[in-house]
Amino acid sequence: MTRQPRTHGQYIQPAAARLQSMAASLPATSRRIAQFVLDNVSEVVHMSVTELAEKTESSEGSVVGLAKTLGYTGFQQFKIALAQDLVAPVQFIHEDLEPGDHADTVVRKVFASHIQALQDTRASLDIPALVRAAEAIRRARRVEVYGIGSAASIAEDAGYRLMRIGVQARVLVDSHIQAIGASLTGPDVATLTISHSGSSQETLTATRLAREAGATTIVVTNYGKSPILAFADIVLFTVARETNFRTEAMTSRIGQLAVLDALIACLALEDYEASSAVLRRSFEILSLKRY
Where would I find the HTH rpiR-type domain in this sequence (predicted)? Predict the structure, then answer.
């Protein structure tokens, strides 16, 4: 079992959270380095790549490789991120629920976990990737949105909000329809797949088929290595740690909703007048549904 990262005061840092998210999927050597870093953050920021390699009985190449796997240009940039975390720590920590927790403790832990997920996701979000995703959707003739299980409701929400700003969107949450729809896409279509694990067979298959058909594939998934990344043209990462009592809980969905909210806001602002006109019209239509 992977141990929890050491905290400083009452904080967990975004860089450490990113490392924690990937730890379980790393090869043995990288996992050993990762665990050492998580257990000794304040010491690692003062180490050279050679010192860390010696401490973890690994090679310098393995240390640098881990940093690059995490999305950094090298060990030095990774150290800077860790050091920044220590200087300006995030104000909440992930805490798992325990039997016997009083209702007020449950509320505090749940809300803190949700806030942490948002802060970690914001810190890790690739802004250039967000811009590319918005551009791909804006260029596309239509957008297909895929989601299965707990991601289905997120997919439905994303499709609805895309339509509200004038984007031709189709939401597919049945695995058979996803596969058929994906195979019938093409270069003028963009697909948006929501998958926390990145390993759900149904959405992975749909994303693969869409890419093979020539569509631009955009994936919203939790940070880490997962099979779906092999078929994604653009990846928007969330950072949400599931806990024993809340597997596939709202924590992951809050991160997904925030990323999609930012994406749709960027889309709307690209063509503000047109988006505003569509929104006004949709408000007028929906007003007929209200007393």
Answer: 13-89
Q: What angle do CA 252, 151, 146 make, to 5 degrees?
A: 135
> What fold is seen in the domain 14-87?
Arc Repressor Mutant, subunit A (1.10.10)
253-284 confidence digits (pLDDT tens): 899 999 999 999 999 888 777 777 777 777 67
Residues 100-129 have a mean pLDDT of 87
Q: Give a three-class secondary structure readout of the chain.
A: CCCCCCCECCECCHHHHHHHHHHCCCCHHHHHHHHHHHHCHHHHCCCCHHHHHHHCCCCHHHHHHHHHHCCCCCHHHHHHHHHHHHHCCCCCCCCCCCCCCCHHHHHHHHHHHHHHHHHHHHHHCCHHHHHHHHHHHHHCCEEEEEECCHHHHHHHHHHHHHHHCCCCEEEECCHHHHHHHHHCCCCCEEEEEECCCCCCHHHHHHHHHHHHCCCEEEEEEECCCCHHHHHCCEEEEECCCCCCCCCCCHHHHHHHHHHHHHHHHHHHHHCHHHHHHHHHHHHHHHHCCCC
Q: List Cβ neighbours of 12 (8 Å cut-off, separation of 6 or more).
A: 5, 89, 90, 93, 94, 116
CA-to-CA distance for 77 and 127, rounded, in angstroms?
Answer: 18
Indicate yes or no: pTM above 0.85: no
Residues of the chain with CATH 1.10.10.10: 14-87
Residues carrying CATH 3.40.50.10490, the chain? 127-287
CA dist 224 and 163 (Å) reads 31
Tell me how far apart the alpha carbons of residues 193 and 181 are, in angstroms, rounded to a whole number: 13
Distance separating alpha carbons of residues 193 and 201, to the nearest angstrom: 12
